[in-house]
Amino acid sequence: MLFYIFAALAIVSGAYMVLTRNLLYAGFSLLITLLSIAGIYVLLFADFIAVTQLMVYVGGVLVLILFGIMLSSRVHDKSVLSENVNTVWGTLVAGLILVGLSYNILKANISSLPWLQMTVVDVLGDQKSTVQMIGIKLMTDFVLPFEIASLLLLIALMGAAYIATNKQKV
Amino acid sequence: MLAFVLTLVLLLSIVIVLAYAERKVAAFMQDRMGPTEAGPYGSLQAVLDVLKLLQKEDIVPAAADKKLFKLAPILIFAAVFAGFAVIPFTPDLVPAGIGIGVFYLLAIISLDVVGLLMAGWGSNNKYAMLGAMRSVAQIVSYEIPAALAILSAVMVCQSLDFQEISYQQGVLMNFFPGLGSEVNWLFGLEALGINTTYVGGITTWNIFRAPILLVSFIIYFIASLAESNRAPFDIPEAESELVAGFHVEYSGFRFAMLFLAEYSMMVLVSLVAVILFLGSWNTPLPNLGPIRLAYWTTGTVGELSGMLWGGFWLLSKTFMLLFLQLQIRWTYPRLRVDQLMHLCWKVLTPIALAVVLIAGIWRLLMI
After folding, report:
1. Are the Cβ atoms of B110 and A55 closer than 8 angstroms?
2. How far lies B159's CA from each of A71, A80, B139, B216, in Å?
3. Which residue would you say has higher pLDDT here, B194 or B76?
């Protein structure tokens, strides 16, 4: 039941985000989409992912987007409106993805997957959250991708700082 | 549902006391009397202020973005109030004891920022806009030293659950499931050989278990002042330049909501500081040989005495911190924007990073 509420909220706000002309409203409806997806994560016993989603996307990315919109446009100017471009190509690509996804989902026959039938309802067991398991995995099996990601982020940070530096004209 | 109502009532009463205390403290620090007319010593002033606000007309400016303008105060208050869900008030009363409470709290506070942007933009007023911009820039920057300070406490406690962290800091530690055979040593160092598990009191608070956490407590306290837009970090609401910042256009009930959200934020950050660093609902009095002060002032878990003592200690420590916040407000002048950013990025963040490293090493010494 809760799943359908969250899913409906996510779909409605996502559709509103795409259809509205006002960029700022689109940003705020993205907030509702992200929140309802976090709710769905909680229903899937992925509490850490849900909170990370809030932390990274709502606290970081969304605030950055809103800040960008507000800084780059005057109040009620034309530039806060989004326009339709590439109608044909957009429809084509989106339609293809839809067809591909539905084909895969219909073909998968999800309810007979072996790992799904073996799963118990009490996924977490004794542990109260997934944090410990994620931490151990990150430091053992996935330590290389983890370090590479941090290196990439560091490079991006240095690049951003370099671009933003106020260069003195020599 | 009961927890929701109880928390709301508790919060409202704390905020009303706080609003009254703010005026009285301000008055005494400036050698004035403060409110004296309403009730004995003016103690009904805050209640009457709220009633007055509720009767006022709800003005929505004609040029404002009406939907966003109306929604923003609700979103801001909801975000702050949602943070109270994971706060343990007594040894066996916590509205929603989830395993990753600390992380959840950090994330839910960042929702507040979106509400502030909404209020600033919706008002369609340049002062409100500037105020919201400054407020968001400040909160986003100060989240980093605050989160690092919290991280050092979490590393020492090895838990993201507020209730587990609370139990670790007192004589009741072995009652928590999973902590049955844990032992607290003085300063967390087993090498010293002084077992404080049954001494309790102030010797098992986090700032004593790992003295480096005293530094991170100070960092967290400074950063939390900035996160709740309090002086000396109140440039978002600087009266002399921005009138009132992001809530300049609000009136009546919506202003009351914003006011309530701001004070709830103060209460929330103080509660978090108390829980993570100052022993949560544990008593500050240790057991001294036959004089079992800690047991006498803790009560029995699950009974009324445990509830009352826990709530009493938690709230009195929180009020101490709130009083400190008020005192700082009337003592320090406001920081300039560049000073604010300098303090955050060049002073607090490097110290906080060093503290995280030392806390990690300390944790290795603790086992």
Report:
1. yes
2. 40, 45, 25, 17
3. B76
Spatial contact of B111 and A54, defined as CB atoms under 8 Å apart: yes
> Residues A46-71: pLDDT tens digits?
888 888 888 888 888 888 888 877 77
Taking CB atoms and an 8 Å cutoff, what residues of chain A touch B104?
51
Q: Which DSSP symbol is given to B229?
A: T
Confidence band for A152, pLDDT divided at 50, 70 and 90 = very high
Q: What is the largest CA-CA distance in chain B?
A: 71
pLDDT tens-digit profile of B261-294?
Answer: 888 888 999 999 998 888 888 888 887 777 777 7
* ∠ Cα A94 A97 A99 (to 5°): 110
Here the CATH number for the domain that contains residue A153 is: 1.20.120.1200
Count the domains in chain A. Answer: 1
Task: Please tell me the distance in Å from B339's CA to the nearest CA on chain A.
Answer: 19
Cβ distance A54 to B107 less than 8 Å, yes or no, reads: yes
Is residue A68 one of the residues assigned to a domain? yes
Helices (H) and strands (E) in chain B, counts: 14, 0
Q: In this structure, what DSSP letter does residue B286 have?
A: P
How many beta-carbon pairs under 8 angstroms link A with B? 68
Please report, for chain B, the start and end positions of each structural domain, with discontinuous segments joined by +: 56-366
- Which range marks the domain in which residue A89 is found? 2-164
Contact residues of A toward B, CB < 8 A: 24, 28, 31, 47-48, 51-52, 54-55, 58-60, 62-63, 66-67, 70-71, 75-76, 127-129, 131
Q: Which two structure tokens, joined as six digits, stand for B145? A: 């030293």
Q: What is the pLDDT of residue A13?
A: 87
Which of B285, B273, B263, B279 has its CA nearest to residue B329? B263
Q: What is the pLDDT of residues B343-366, one digit of tens each?
A: 888 899 999 999 999 988 888 887
